[in-house]
Structure formats: structure tokens, C-alpha cells
Design brief:
There is one protein chain. By secondary structure, the chain is of the alpha/beta class. The protein has two domains: 2-157, Four Helix Bundle (Hemerythrin (Met), subunit A), CATH 1.20.120.1190; 168-350, P-loop containing nucleotide triphosphate hydrolases (Rossmann fold, 3-Layer(aba) Sandwich). The protein is 55% helix and 12% strand. The protein contains 13 helices and seven strands. A seven-stranded mixed sheet has the order 2-3-4-1-5-6-7, with helices on both faces. Helix 2 runs antiparallel to helix 3, helix 2 packs antiparallel against helix 6 and helix 5 (87-117) packs across helix 7 (143-157). The longest helix has 31 residues, at 87-117. It is elongated and about 100 Å long. Bound molecules: guanosine-5'-diphosphate and magnesium ion.
Length: 355
């Protein structure tokens, strides 16, 4: 994901002031020593003003350009961003930072004019003092905005790195129904683990190879999509529902035996909630068929048929029916997104590295 890799370093106002002063002092006189003292000082101070205001402009521009534009983000990240930061405050801060370039230019122009017109060393030093103090005031005035942006960057860097381009299967179902086992069955490399914002939970991302490329991801969300959504607080619910922007298909696991500790009704209620909250197509995996009696399986089949949910039989313990289930999704609802993904991956592989 791009916006996380380009997040800039954002100094506090105090750090920026310190850097500014150090840079100011570090710019040395380079004019011939034959020049009279006042001319040497004039050149030196002009160079310092130009150098430090250019540095400050670049630094602020770098921050403003490299912090993500919320409106350009994928809806999944946009929604999470809306929970972790105040978007209004963020946009205001970026705006104020961008607008400060006008003030910096004007302060620097004033100073250069005064230095040019100065009659003696004292007047040059007066111009320098004015310049330095005005820039310090400007940086300090941006203190709250720099703090807002710094905190936002830290929070953004902690968002999970999930591809928003890959076709995505989200696995749901009550605890112990076999979700993690399913992901382990179909993931052709070790699943990755990422923290999930606003919860103490982590999500697990399995990777499925299609045509030799890890082109489909299967996301297990322990503790998120395994309890009634109606019991969630607002923020947690919003964080969970952000997943709907990612999920192209949902595999809902049902345990037809009593082993998971949840009744069929409890499981079906969650299924209904999830399928109503997500726009993705839902397919049910009636799992643990190696363990379940025929009657147990039939009870679930009948219930699902009357609710209108398609289902497949799986054993995530033995990995039977699991890859077949995923292949069916790949050839069905995930197909067009998969083709798009394979195309951009090939194009990227063929085009030269970006500079
Ligand atoms: N017999 C049997 N046990 C299973 C199956 N799938 C999962 N289990 C077991 O059920 C328990 C919970 O599985 P897990 O994948 O951790 O469920 P999760 O909580 O939904 O992630 C574990 O002991 C698994 O070994 C299955 O298809 N058959
Ligand atoms: Mg699990």
C-alpha cells in the first residue's frame, strides 16, 4: 500500500525552530575576503535568508504532498481514517501548512529588501533579527497543526497493510467454527498478521496462489466478525464495517455439531446480520463434516435452503472442500476483479521501475 510507505517525518514546532536556527548559522560566508565588511555581511545574510526560507518551504511542501489526500484513498482506508483521526482537523492542518508558504515568501522578501537597502552592519543585523523572529513565530504558530499531522501520521502508519486491489474473501462465523483452520488450508504461504484499529484484535491475511501469483487474499477476523454486531459499540462496529469495502465475498462458517458451543440459531442470526451489513455475496461453509452426523448436516442444509443461502460442505480439519470452495469464488464473484488484478500486476512487472 502506497500511502504508508511515503508518510513523511513531521517535526514538532520546537524541532523545526531548532533546525531552522542551526541551518541559519551553518550557512557560511563564501564571498571573497577582499570585499568590505558590510558587503560581506550583506551577502552572507542574504544567502542565509534564501537558504533557510527555501529549506522551510521544501519541508512543508514535502509534508503536504506526502500526507495522504483523504478523498483519494480507497474507501476502506478512508473509513478507518475517519475513526482514527478527525478528518476536518487533518484537512485544516494540511491547508494551513500549505498556506504558510505565502507568508514565508513574504517574510523572506521583506528581509532581503531590508538587507539590500541597509546602510551599515547594524541595519543588516536588524533585518536578520526581524527575519529570524518572524520565522520562529510562524513555525510556533503552526505548532498545533504540526502536532495534529504528526499524530495522524503515527496512527496511519499503524493501520494494517492490506492490498485494496486484490480480490478479497472475508471469513466470518462464531468462534471455534473453523475459520482459522480454513484460512490455513487455502493459504499457500504463511498468513500475515496485522493489528486492527480500535480493537485489541488482529486480523490474519492468508494468500491464495492463482496462476502462480498470490492474487487472492483470505482474511480471518478473530473477535470481529464472530459475535453479534448488535453488541458492538459504535466505533468498533464502524471499524468492522470498514471491512465491507474490502470484502468481495464472504465465507460464513457454520459448525453443525455442538462442538463450537453455539446453537444453530445463534450462528444463523450472525449470518443474517453479516449478510445484511455487507454487500458482498455470502457463501456458507457447513464445516466439520468429518465429525457431524448426517442429520446434523441435513438440519443446517434445510435451514440455509429456506433462508436462501448457498452452501458447501467442508472439513477444515482435513482441508477437504476448502480449496474447491475458494476456486468456485475465484471463478464466480471474484473473477472480474481477479482479471483486473492480474492485468495490473503484469503491467507493473513489464513497466520499468518508477524513478
Ligand atoms: N473435526 C473437525 N474439527 C475442526 C474442523 N475445523 C476446525 N476444527 C477444530 O475446531 C477448533 C476450532 O477451529 P478454529 O479454526 O480455531 O476455529 P475459529 O475459532 O473459527 O478460528 C479447532 O480445534 C479445530 O481443529 C473440521 O472441519 N473438523
Ligand atoms: Mg480463529
Amino acid at each position: 500500500m502506497n500511502f504508508k510507505s511515503t508518510l513523511p517525518y513531521i517535526p514538532s514546532a520546537e524541532e523545526a525552530v531548532r533546525q531552522f536556527i542551526n541551518r541559519y548559522k551553518a550557512i557560511e560566508a563564501r564571498s571573497p575576503t577582499s570585499l568590505p565588511g558590510v558587503e560581506r555581511l550583506r551577502r552572507l545574510e542574504s544567502a542565509r535568508v534564501k537558504g533557510t526560507s527555501g529549506w522551510l518551504l521544501n519541508m512543508f511542501k514535502g509534508i503536504a504532498y506526502n500526507m495522504p489526500f483523504i478523498n483519494d484513498l480507497h474507501p476502506f482506508y478512508r473509513e478507518l481514517m475517519g475513526i482514527i483521526i478527525s478528518i476536518d482537523e487533518y484537512k485544516h492542518s494540511l491547508g494551513k501548512l500549505t498556506n504558510s508558504s505565502r507568508a514565508i515568501n513574504s517574510i523572506s522578501r521583506d528581509a532581503l529588501r531590508m538587507i539590500k537597502a541597509a546602510q551599515d552592519k547594524d541595519e543588516i543585523i536588524k533585518a536578520r533579527r526581524m527575519y529570524v523572529s518572524r520565522i520562529i513565530d510562524l513555525i510556533n504558530d503552526l505548532g498545533p497543526e504540526l502536532r495534529t499531522l504528526k499524530e495522524a501520521a503515527i496512527k496511519m502508519s499503524r493501520l494494517p497493510s492490506i492490498s485494496v486491489e486484490k480480490p478479497t474473501i472475508v471469513v466470518s462465523g462464531m468462534p471455534n467454527t473453523g475459520k482459522s483452520s480454513l484460512v490455513a488450508c487455502v493459504s499457500t504461504k504463511k498468513p500475515e498478521i496485522a493489528d486492527y484499529p480500535f480493537t485489541t484484535k488482529q486480523i490474519i491475511i492468508g494468500h491464495v496462489k492463482v496462476y502462480g501469483i498470490y492474487a487472492v487474499q483470505v482474511i480471518d477476523t478473530p473477535g470481529l466478525l464472530d459475535r453479534p454486531l448488535s453488541e458492538r459499540n459504535k466505533i468498533e462496529l464502524q471499524a468492522i464495517l470498514a471491512l465491507r469495502h474490502l470484502a468481495d465475498s464472504i465465507v460464513f462458517m457454520v459448525d453443525p455439531t455442538q462442538h463450537s458451543g453455539y446453537t444453530l440459531n445463534q450462528q444463523l442470526n450472525l449470518l443474517k446480520e453479516v449478510s445484511q451489513s455487507f454487500k458482498a455475496n455470502v457463501v456458507v461453509a457447513i464445516n466439520k463434516v468429518d465429525l457431524a452426523s448426517e442429520e446434523e448436516v441435513k438440519t443446517v442444509e434445510d435451514a440455509l435452503r429456506s433462508l436462501g443461502f448457498p452452501y458447501r460442505l467442508t472439513s477444515a480439519l482435513k482441508c477437504t472442500g476448502t480449496r474447491e470452495l475458494v476456486d468456485e469464488l475465484i471463478n464466480g464473484p471474484l473473477r472480474s476483479k481477479l482479471i483486473d488484478y492480474l492485468r495490473i500486476t503484469h503491467e507493473r512487472a513489464l513497466s520499468p521501475e518508477p524513478k
